[in-house]
Structure formats: C-alpha cells, structure tokens
Write a structure and sequence with these properties.
Elements (H helix, E strand, L loop, with lengths): L2 H45 L6 H22 L8 H29 L7 H28 L6 E3 L2 E3 L9 E3 L1 H6 L1 H7 L6 E5 H11 L4 H18 L5 E5 L12 H11 L3 E4 L2 H9 L4 E3 H7 L9 E9 L6 E4 L5 E5 L8 E12 L2 E8 L8
Parallel strand pairs: 3-4, 3-6, 4-5, 6-7, 10-12
Antiparallel strand pairs: 1-2, 8-9, 8-11, 9-10, 11-12
Length: 373
C-alpha cells in the first residue's frame, strides 16, 4: 500500500469513527435509561414484597413505560448527539420538569397510592413514582435537545441566547453549484477549510432532476450526484448533510427561499451560480459566494498597452473583427483580425470590458504575419 493510499485510508477511517461517535453515545444513553427503568421495576417488586398483583403490576407498568419511551425515540430518526452541553441542559431541564410534574400529580398520588399512611411499602412506592417521573422528564429533555443538532436556542423574554459560531462560516451549497461541478475541483485544491453543508431539500431536488424523463435534465442530475459522491470521499473537505427540519422553514416551500433562510439561521454563506438567488440572498442580508464571479476574478488581468498572443478562431460582429480566446476562456476581440482566422497573432491590448457574463479584451494586431510567397 502506497503512502498516499495509506493516508487516504486513515483519513476516511477517522471520518467514519467521528461520524459514528454520536450514534454510540446515543445508544449508551438508551441502554442506561432502559437499565434504570428495569432496575426501578425490580425495586418496586421488592418494596411491595412481591405482593400479587400489586408488585407485578407495578413492575410491568414501569417496564412498559420505559420500553414505550425507548421505542418512540427509536421511531423518530435522524438524531445525533451534538455537544456535552446539550446533555447538561437536558438533564437540568429534566430535573426542573420532574419537580413540576411531581407537584402536579401529588394529589393523585396521595389520594390513590397511599391507602394506609403508616404502611412503609406504600410510602416507598410513592417516592418511586416521583423518581420515575423525574427520570422520564430527563430522558425526554435530553432526547429533544440532541435532535436539534448544531442549532438550538434558549429564549428568555427580551433576551435570546443562540449558538455563537467561531472561525470560518459554513458554506451552504445550492443545486446549481453542485451540478456545475467546479466546487469539487476547488475542494481538491485544499483552499476550503470550512464545513460544506448540503440541505436535505437540495438533495431531494437533485434526485428529482436525476429521475426526470428529460435526458438533459437527467444527465445533469446524475452529474450532481456524482459530484457529491466525489466531495464526500475527499479527505480535504468536510461535507455534512443537513436535514433542514427547522422551525423557521415550516412555512417556506420554495427551495431558493429555504436555502437563504437556512443559511441565515446557521450564520453561513450561500454558494451558488444562480443570479436571482444571489440577489435574493443579498436582499436578506445573507453572504453569497458566486462561483461565476470567483472564476472571473481569477482570470488573467490585462491592462491597455500590454502584449498578448492569441489564436483567432472566428469572425467578430463588427466589420473586420476577429475573435479569439485565452486559455482561461476570456474572449479577445481583435480589430482587423478577420483575415487572420486560424493564425496565432501578437496583439496590443487597447481596452478591457467587464460584463456580468465575464471579461472581454479588445486589441489590435501588433504586427501582421509575413505573407507566404
């Protein structure tokens, strides 16, 4: 195995390990919760001295509650542990809710679970009920917080505490820029050191294009899926699929609008080739990276008076003009160059025009090629 292959294998293995850590931690929480519930069920039988049917009915009820909550949690997919702080705040909120719920059900517990106030078994059972309520509240609170992933907020009247992003802002990819494919080439250079986010609704739109009956659209969609696969296997970039199930997106249905709202919530930047999406994002105060503008910025800078060499490939729109292209695709319009089509000529730059479609260079022939006798 070569050194490069070994490095790539190690990077992919580490990425897989980090991605599975949150799932392992969630299963530890689930197993611990189930073990505690089963232990409480056994404790209920001991407290009631294995009386029939009270002891067995209490144990079955506690076990059923624990299993039902665990099954309900498993049925709600797309959850992962984000940070230790989410668990901490979940436990804190769970204890608070447990105290409030315990106070709310206290009349019921005192009226129906304490037929004999001098019976120590019934007193212990009542305390056990409060423990079960607190444990359930803690589990539900932790489960809700970890489902919020990287964006959760604690709101107090007139004050809102939200997650503060450090370092570079994440980049939210649009469908057009994924299909374009140049974003994958940029990732190969290693210049991007921030997280790339692909929302679930963008992936669904891409899958819809790939399943289109139109051959051109179908090829574009499949190209986009191939680009995503290439980026996912690239160890130089961190690509994350975002479910996009935020409260701010419930009443937003258009993909472009959802993309802008998601980028605003995540404090990220939109990466697109769509001119209209570019304007919409700017109007809503969201930063945009347009790959077309980036490509134009990287093109050769030519100043009036400089000399260039260009091959004239076709005639221009005006009388006598010839048109050629530089290696980066910049169009060069050559005065009196129509008669030189198919030849490499040296030109002097006369002016440079920047348009929304790109940069155009105008020049005149520096010296005419010698005529062949």
């Amino acid at each position: 195995m070569s050194q490069k292959t070994l490095r790539d294998w190690f990077s992919e293995s580490m990425g897989t390990f980090v991605g599975s850590t949150s799932n392992i931690l969630m299963w530890v929480v689930r197993v611990a919760f189930l073990a505690l519930m089963l232990g409480l069920a056994a404790q209920a039988m001991v407290v009631l001295e294995f009386r029939v049917p009270q002891a067995y009915l209490s144990a079955i009820l506690i076990s059923a509650v624990g299993i039902a909550i665990l099954l309900g949690d498993l049925l709600i997919r797309n959850k992962e542990i984000t940070t230790i702080s989410a668990i901490f705040f979940g436990l804190l909120m769970g204890f608070l809710l447990g105290q409030l719920m315990g106070a709310a059900v206290q009349p019921f517990v005192d009226g129906y679970l304490t037929p004999d106030p001098f019976d120590r078994g019934w007193a212990n059972l009542r305390a056990l009920v409060y423990v079960v309520i607190t444990l359930v509240c803690c589990y539900i609170s932790v489960s809700v917080l970890v489902q919020t992933k990287d964006d959760f907020r604690f709101i107090i009247p007139y004050v809102e505490f939200s997650k503060q992003l450090k370092g570079a802002k994440p980049l939210v990819l649009d469908t057009s820029v994924i299909i374009d494919g140049r974003i994958a080439d940029i990732c190969d250079t290693g210049i991007l050191d921030t997280k790339l986010i692909v929302p679930r609704f963008v992936l669904q739109e891409l899958q819809g294009i790939a399943d289109s009956s139109d051959k051109i659209k179908r090829n574009r969609g499949r190209r986009g899926l191939d680009v995503l696969k290439k980026m996912q296997n690239n160890p130089k970039v961190e690509l994350q699929m975002h479910e996009g199930n935020l409260a701010e997106l419930r009443d937003v249905h258009k993909v472009d609008e959802r993309l802008v709202v998601l980028a605003k919530v995540l404090s990220g930047r939109v990466v697109t080739n769509d001119f209209n999406l570019n304007k919409i994002a700017q109007l809503q105060g969201v930063e945009v990276i347009n790959l077309n503008e980036l490509a134009n910025a990287l093109k050769l800078v030519a100043l009036p008076g400089e000399n260039l060499s260009v091959r004239i490939v076709k005639q221009g729109d005006q009388m006598g003009q010839g048109v050629g292209y530089l290696d980066d695709g910049t169009m060069v319009v050559v005065e009196q160059g129509r008669s030189l089509i198919g030849q490499d000529v040296a030109i002097t730059v006369t002016s440079v025009l920047q348009t929304p479609a790109g940069r155009m260079i105008f020049g005149k022939v520096e010296r005419m090629p010698a005529a062949v006798s």
